[in-house]
Design a protein that fits this description.
three-stranded mixed beta sheet, 35% helix
């Protein structure tokens, strides 16, 4: 069995020193500067509890930050590798307030395993997960489900840029033909109809993006950087989210187009947007506490800019996670 690492990105948007830098550069650069990009829900400790309880097999957790750390974190934990942006990114591009440069360069992290799983801080494990849910026979577990690109998505511009690069390097029909059993796997259930419907289109038009913990091969990043260094370097210099950016989806798409993945069902995942309706109708509680899912995404929304709603929802989330992960982990002081 391959050794597997986790890479986790986190930012504390309340840190006074970070905010001073943020405010200085917001006056000088365009881009996405909304609070939802940097807001801390104070539930990160439950992800670390989940790592200890539900994925004890992980070799190392690379915790990537601007420089600040949660006050409760045990920085001396033997499985924890604290990684500051300055330790693996070009100092000429720092500071950065854009997840895209941080993500597309994460293969440079010191001592990162070939097999790693990428987490944003809105992704949570809520049930035990075996190693082969992420990697099987040395390949990332994923689903190759085609989609029509929608500009309504918050990442639509990035995905369009990703697809432009992907289609330069791969012929869609050849890619599917070489791995037809992976593109039409029965594990996808009815979702496979999307692939049938979009087969007449000669180019990749998009993929269903589950926005869940994503398994990667480090060598995929190395290969793409060797082929597309100029465009990736441009995104690496982007301080705030820009429509010209490439994002980490490109590396996932590359693995799908090459066939370097093992088909998997995503029925054990749940995506939930944090809204008033989702909180009041127990949608979020069900996702966390029902035991039906292994992984969930709790995606922040502009609706939570209402301070009273945010504070109430934050406390509710803490109560839900306490119900399934009440014991402190060794990652906590």
């Amino acid at each position: 069995m391959n050794e597997i690492d986790f890479v986790l990105l986190w930012v504390d948007g309340n840190d006074p020193k970070w905010r001073k830098e943020f405010e200085y550069y917001t006056a000088k650069h365009d881009g996405d500067k909304r609070d939802i990009r940097f807001r801390d829900w104070n539930i990160l400790r439950y992800l670390f509890r989940a790592f200890e309880s539900f994925t004890p097999w992980v070799r190392k957790i690379h915790f990537v930050t601007w420089g600040h750390l949660p006050h409760w974190l045990n920085a001396d934990h033997p499985k924890l590798h604290i990684v500051r942006h300055s330790e693996y990114m070009d100092e000429n591009n720092l500071p950065v307030f854009n997840a895209n440069p941080i993500e597309i360069n994460m293969y440079r992290i010191n001592d990162l395993a070939e097999h790693f799983v990428f987490f944003n801080d809105d992704l949570f494990i809520v049930s035990p997960i075996p190693q082969d849910r992420f990697f099987k026979d040395g390949l990332p577990c994923d689903m190759a489900i085609a989609n029509a690109l929608s500009s309504s998505s918050g990442t639509g511009h990035f995905v369009l840029n990703d697809l432009e690069i992907l289609n330069r390097h791969f012929d869609k029909r050849t890619a599917v033909k070489r791995n037809v059993s992976k593109w039409f796997s029965p594990r996808y259930g009815k979702e496979v109809v999307r692939n049938l419907a979009l087969m007449p289109w000669p180019r990749f038009t998009g993929f269903v993006d589950p926005h869940m913990p994503q398994p990667f091969l480090k060598s995929t990043f190395e290969e793409l950087w060797a082929k597309e260094a100029e465009v990736l370097a441009k995104t690496s210099a982007s301080k705030f989210r820009s429509c010209d950016d490439i994002n980490q989806y490109l590396f996932r798409y590359w693995q799908l187009a090459k066939g370097t993945f093992h088909p998997v069902s995503m029925c054990d995942t749940r995506y939930v947007e944090l809204t008033k309706v989702a909180m009041e109708n127990s949608i979020v509680e069900e996702a966390i506490c029902s035991g039906r899912y292994a992984m969930i995404c709790l995606n922040d929304s502009d609706e939570m800019n209402d301070i009273a709603l945010f504070e109430k929802s934050k406390q509710q989330l803490i109560e839900y996670f306490e119900a399934i992960l009440p014991q402190r982990s060794s990652f906590e002081k």
